[in-house]
Specification:
Keywords: NADP, One-carbon metabolism, Oxidoreductase. One of its GO terms (molecular function) is dihydrofolate reductase activity. With about 160 residues, this protein is an alpha/beta fold. About 20% of the residues lie in helices and about 35% in strands. It has one domain: Dihydrofolate Reductase, subunit A, CATH 3.40.430.10. The strands form two sheets. An eight-stranded mixed β-sheet has the order 5-4-3-6-1-7-10-9. It is globular.
């Protein structure tokens, strides 16, 4: 199984503010949907609650320490091992938030990073990556338009074995 992290980051590695995204970038949501469709996804409880519902067409696994937590349409996990045991398919996607990325990073083999070339006010951050340990597989410039107001790029990295 390939463990992949998928994240959008601002110029300062910011990923969230007040349990929400500090930007609106519909093309990034479309990219996330296209790449993760049909796969298992792992989200932390706070991240799941900020979205408010399971992402359709994917096996949603919510990681929490609350043994009484319930989320309709989702599988609940209480540890990294428990979450991974519930995954199906060749590739699983870690969708955050900050602490979930930090916990899974040692196990992560691929990174899908949307780099947004603008600074934002953030209170949650993606862990610092030592890119010397990663090989860039692809980069694609996103389309800036009336709904996507920032310069951004879709990067895919693979951990060097």
């Amino acid at each position: 199984m390939i463990i992949s992290a998928m994240v959008a980051v601002g110029e300062n590695n910011e990923i969230g503010k007040d349990n929400d995204l500090p930007w609106r970038l519909p093309n990034d949501w479309a990219y996330l949907r296209r790449v993760t469709m049909g796969h298992s996804i792992i989200l932390g409880r706070k991240n799941y609650e900020s979205i408010g519902k399971p992402l359709d067409g994917r096996k949603n696994i919510v990681l929490t320490t609350n043994k009484d937590y319930k989320a309709e349409g989702c599988h609940i996990a209480y540890s990294i091992e428990d979450a991974l045991s519930k995954c199906e398919g060749e590739e699983v996607f870690i969708l955050g938030g900050e602490e979930i990325y930090r916990q899974f990073l040692p196990y992560t083999q691929k990174l899908y990073i949307t780099k947004i070339h603008a600074p934002f006010d953030g209170d949650r951050f993606f862990p610092t990556i030592d890119y010397s340990l990663w090989k860039e597989l692809s980069v694609e410039k996103g389309i800036k338009d009336e709904k996507n107001h920032y310069d951004y790029y879709f990067h895919v990295f693979e951990k060097i074995k």
